[in-house]
Write a structure and sequence with these properties.
Catalytic activity: 4-demethylwyosine(37) in tRNA(Phe) + S-adenosyl-L-methionine = 4-demethyl-7-[(3S)-3-amino-3-carboxypropyl]wyosine(37) in tRNA(Phe) + S-methyl-5'-thioadenosine + H(+)
Radius of gyration: 26 Å
Subcellular location: Cytoplasm
CATH topology of the largest domain: Rossmann fold
Strand order of the largest sheet: 10-11-9-8-12-13-15-14
Shape: elongated
Organism: Aspergillus mulundensis
Distance between the termini: 59 Å
CATH superfamily of the largest domain: Vaccinia Virus protein VP39
Function: S-adenosyl-L-methionine-dependent transferase that acts as a component of the wybutosine biosynthesis pathway. Wybutosine is a hyper modified guanosine with a tricyclic base found at the 3'-position adjacent to the anticodon of eukaryotic phenylalanine tRNA.
Order of helices and strands: EHHEEHHEEHEEHEHEHEHEHEHEHEE
CATH class of the largest domain: Alpha Beta
Number of strands: 15
Strand content: 15-25%
Family: Belongs to the class I-like SAM-binding methyltransferase superfamily. TRM5/TYW2 family.
Helix content: 25-40%
Length: about 425
């Protein structure tokens, strides 16, 4: 499948088609579909007498209309300033009544019909608290504004961890995109966030761009990539899970608390051709399928096993899984743990160290929001903390030297003014000491 990233356009409406000198027809503006949809609405629904009030002609307004948009099939996603900039457009938009705005959104959707668009929404950033001020642990997109089309029943606001059922999944509106050499991702935009900015980190796992150790035979000391496993402590809809699978690891064990994200991940696995098992985790840590039953039924084609519940039970669960698979001589050592929670994943560092293979070591990929002036200092802090956990939980043989080393810091994207989303690649090492004469 060819790579087809989310469709985004940023046209300059002042660009015009070049015509031969002496052409009989006037030059036409080359406006993009978003501008066309808005301009078509204005022409069809607003009287010309309205424009002198705003000191702007229809032609001048059309040339300055917003240009940016993103398509996640079949949804058109507009930025926050789509109806406020430029000011003349914002003033005109504010004057529209409810029915006029509905007609506007329908006109915009119609302009994008050739792209398969059926729904329109306006974007809003993910927030760390919900509408009641509670921590948004499930990272739900509480600010997404549906404008056109049926997005499904509105999310419950009674509690941040209300989990969906099968009927909810069937009623919801789902979208998809293709990134990173054909990887399909699927999610329900009313209930689950999608971060397009993570595309560079996904590419890094795939081996493109910046350094990413531990998924080649050299850094694995001769061990093949398809002989190792990965744990993703915050699996989401499969942001990094799918990149690890595409790279060729044997299996990814994931933990995710949001049922909408779990279903999106499961659908994405089906679309990409990877077998996926979903195991529920109760509030007491009990599994919906016992570890012996899971191990007995597990097949090589089950490339993903997602535990739907709190990852605070991750170390205990993975310890039980390892013991059961080792008894069957089917265990695959875990060499990577991905910790993709912002603003900090520190609550899971200790469990991550318990999960990494104690005899071979491995890598933690620690995602953090960091003050741009403190990136190096934060790296030292993370490494020291992780090393303390690692030396506490790993083998304590007298001939073994344990350590942690921050091998690389990837600056993924700006999260807020003065704040950078960074990924710290921390290698957990275990070396046999040389005999001293």
């Amino acid at each position: 499948m060819a790579d087809a990233p989310p469709l985004e356009r940023n046209f300059d409406a002042s660009m015009t088609k070049q015509r031969k000198i002496g052409a009989k027809h006037p030059r036409k503006q080359n406006i993009n579909p978003l501008q066309k949809g808005i301009a078509d609405f204005i022409s069809a629904h607003l009287p010309p007498s309205l424009f002198p009030q705003h000191a702007l002609s229809l032609e001048e307004l059309a040339s300055s209309l917003p240009k940016r948009y993103t398509i996640y099939e079949p949804m058109l996603l507009l930025p926050l300033n789509a109806f406020t900039h430029p000011p003349a457009w914002g003033k005109l938009y504010d004057s529209l009544d409810h029915d006029q705005r509905k007609a506007l959104y329908a006109s915009i959707a119609s302009a994008f019909a050739r792209y398969g668009v059926t729904h329109v929404a306006m974007n809003a950033p993910i927030v760390l608290t919900d509408t009641q001020g509670h921590e948004n642990r499930m990272r739900s997109p509480v600010g997404l504004v549906p404008l056109h089309g049926d997005f499904g029943p509105p999310p419950s606001r009674d509690g941040e961890e209300v989990q969906p059922c099968r009927d909810d999944f069937e009623q919801a509106f789902w979208v998809r995109t293709v990134q990173n050499h054909g990887i399909v991702q699927i999610w329900a935009p009313l209930y689950t966030m999608f971060s397009r900015g993570n595309v560079t980190e996904k590419a890094r796992i795939l081996g493109h761009g910046s350094m990413f150790e531990g998924l080649d035979e050299v850094s694995l000391c001769g061990e093949a990539v398809d002989d190792v496993a990965v744990v993703d402590m915050y699996a989401g809809i499969g942001y990094f899970v799918f990149s690890y699978l595409k790279r060729g690891v044997k299996r990814v064990w994931g933990f995710e608390i949001n049922g909408w994200s779990v279903e999106g991940l499961r659908r994405g696995c089906v679309e990409n051709g990877w077998g996926c098992r979903v195991i529920g985790v109760g509030s007491d840590g009990r599994l919906s399928t016992s570890v012996p039953e899971l191990v007995e039924s597990l097949r090589d084609t089950d490339r993903v096993v997602i535990f739907h519940g709190d990852n605070g039970f991750a170390a205990k669960i993975m310890g039980q899984v390892r013991a059961a698979l080792e008894a069957r001589r089917e265990w695959t050592s875990i060499r990577h743990v991905n910790l993709g929670l912002l603003p900090s994943s520190s609550s899971s560092w200790d469990d991550a160290c318990k999960i990494i293979d104690k005899d071979k070591g491995g890598w933690l990929h620690v995602h953090e929001n960091v003050d741009v002036q403190q990136i190096e200092a934060k790296g030292r802090e993370i490494t020291a903390t992780v090393e303390r956990y690692w030396t506490e939980y790993a083998s304590q043989r007298t001939d073994t030297e344990l350590g942690a080393d921050c091998r690389h810091v990837e600056q993924v994207k700006t999260y807020a003014p003065g704040v950078m989303h960074c990924v710290y690649d921390v290698q957990l090492t275990q070396q046999v000491r040389s005999n001293v004469s």
